[in-house]
Amino acid sequence: MEYAATITGTGSAFPEHRVTNHDIADRLAASNIETSDVWIRERTGIAERRFSTPGNSDEYNSSLGLAAAQKALEMAGKAPEDIDQIIYSTCTPDTIIPSTACWLQYKLGAVRAWGMDLNAACSGFIYGLTIADQFIRTNQVKTCLVVGAEILSSIINWQDRSSCILFGDGAGAAIVESAPSEFPHRILSSHLLSDGSLWELLHVPAGGSAQAATPDIMAQNLNKIHMNGREIFKIAVRTLTSFAMTALEKNGMTVDMLDWFIPHQANYRIIEAVAKRLELPMEKVLVNVDRYGNTSSATVPSMLDEAVRDGRIQKGQTVLLDAFGAGLTYGAILLRW
Ligand code: ACO
What we know:
Elements: E1 3-13, E2 18-20, H1 21-29, H2 37-44, E3 48-50, H3 61-76, E4 85-89, H4 100-108, E5 114-118, H5 124-137, E6 143-151, H6 161-164, E7 169-180, E8 187-194, E9 202-203, H7 215-219, E10 226-227, H8 229-250, E11 260-263, H9 268-278, H10 289-292, H11 299-309, E12 318-325, E13 329-336
Parallel strand pairs: 4-5, 4-6, 11-12
Antiparallel strand pairs: 1-7, 2-3, 6-7, 8-13, 9-10, 12-13
The structure holds acetyl coenzyme *A.
């Protein structure tokens, strides 16, 4: 017997604290760095984002992941003990060891599950969903919890006005279950690629084993995000478009057959440019970057959850998930809801 993977529940969670562009401008002004609400809105489409409160254990990465996972389980009608596998996508883990997957497994009481962290930056949820799909197709796993969660506020470089305006914290989760291979509501195909030669475009130079985060290193912000935004912008538009086309072509479909497009939420202008290249009307593009900023691997699952819960995504519709991230990493998944 052959199997397919179907998403039966979604969830998302964000910290309480809203940070507006005005708040960011005020914070930067204290260091004599200039920005404005108008500039951020016009260049990124972001109006506000959420930051977890440092030291608040209810807003640790794994705590947001827990809240998202519990909602996804509830939607799926499943209990924590039903989970066989946890794939936890994050580049801002609670701790280096243990993995955030293990923290979540413990907090959730998913006593039968094995779990691991996965770091593909903003493409992470799509990488995670692909892993779940493969384990389910080969009948190694019946029920998988895939989480994308980030506390990007912990690595924001407040000396760099082009990147500090972009990021936020949040989590999204999906319960992925086994179904017969021709089940209509399933993951149709997934497409992944990494290009490590472009590492320099978005990286955190120190804080890993190659370069420790000493006081001197931290004073230079080398344990924070360093980004070439202009270059990433161009690559993102090109690759999001090409991965979308690849996923559609693989399934013998055309853009007009798509009901919903969920791109990684990095910048509204990137999203708009991709939609234009695909000749896809913006009414079919799901966007939450205005309210949450770029939450890396949490953008795609939190957007999916929002649109499932508010009824925009309906059973039987075709949905394309599409992302790019630091690495660089790329990925797309076409699914029938
Ligand atoms: N406020 C005011 N001015 C600013 C700001 C700011 N916050 N940031 C940059 N500027 C200035 C620049 O200094 C520059 O001034 P200059 O012309 O005098 O040199 C001017 O604005 C234009 O700068 P650009 O970099 O060309 O601006 P752009 O329109 O490209 O917007 C941005 C910059 C928002 C970073 C954009 O390039 C972008 O979103 N890139 C993609 C970044 C991204 O997606 N990163 C996430 C990757 S995914 C992951 O894994 C996390």
